[in-house]
Amino acid sequence: MTQPTETDTIWVTQEAYDRLQQELAHLKGDVWADITAKIAAARDEGDLNENGGYHAALEEQGKTKARIDQLESMLRRAEVGDKPADDGLVEAGMLVTIRFEGDTDTEEFLLGSRELLSMDSSVDMDVYSPTSPLGAAILGKNVGDSATYETPNGKRLGVEIVAAKPF
Q1: Using an 8 Å Cβ cutoff, are 80 and 25 in contact?
Q2: What's the pTM value of the predicted model, to 2 decimals?
Q3: CA geometry: angle 158, 164, 167, nearest 5 deg
Q4: What is the DSSP letter of 31?
Q5: Domain boundary at 48, 80, 112, which?
Q6: CA nearest 79: which of 66, 92, 90?
Q7: What tens digit of pLDDT does each residue of 96-147 get?
Q8: Is 67 exposed, middle or buried (0-12, 13-18, 19+ CB in 10 A)?
Q9: What is the domain extent for residue 137?
Q10: Are strands 10-12 and 78-80 parallel, antiparallel or unpaired?
């Protein structure tokens, strides 16, 4: 799956949006202040070349800054909406089960954004954007419908929508 660009909209519930905002505020507030204090304390110890605490704090600062940037990007791109109706129509925010043409096994995934998953850290599943080839092919279809999409290598795959329920 490709990385989202700054213009890709992500669908999130109000709950997920609020949680992302809270995480951002926490990182920019308490966490950033704590890291800054660690860096200052390590600088006061003297020689920075061999100061493990200083280098660890700089690494933590870099990771925190990357997460802050990621959260700010997601919040700029977020489209807040209600959970979709449980009517079998495939749309963002749905847990979709498909069967590939010629296969008996099914696959289940979230059609939406990974940010919806982090509300429950015990959930581990594939996530497809509604703008991905598979997502775009099934978006707006109903349970029982079939769709065909083109993979990045040019192969065409057919799928049947077995189930679609709100996540």
Answers
A1: no
A2: 0.62
A3: 130
A4: I
A5: 80
A6: 92
A7: 999 999 999 999 998 887 665 554 455 678 888 888 899 999 999 999 999 9
A8: middle
A9: 94-166
A10: parallel
- Are residues 58 and 128 in contact, defined by beta-carbon separation less than 8 angstroms? no
Residue 47 pLDDT exceeds 60: yes
Burial (0-12, 13-18, 19+ Cβ within 10 Å), 111? buried
Q: What percent of the chain has pLDDT over 70?
A: 89
Whole-angstrom distance, CA of residue 9 vs CA of residue 124: 22
Better pLDDT: 26 or 55: 26
DSSP 95-141: EEEEEETT-S-EEEEEES-GGGGGGSTT---EEE-TTSHHHHHHTT-
CATH number at residue 24: 1.10.287.180
**Res 167: pLDDT:** 76
Q: List the one residue out of 83, 85, 66, 89 whose CA is nearest residue 140.
A: 89
- Mean of the per-residue pLDDT values of the chain: 85
- Considering the domain architecture, whether residues 99 and 71 belong to the same structural domain is answered as no
Residue holding tokens 């065909």?
148
Round to whole Å and give the CA distance between 71 and 67: 6
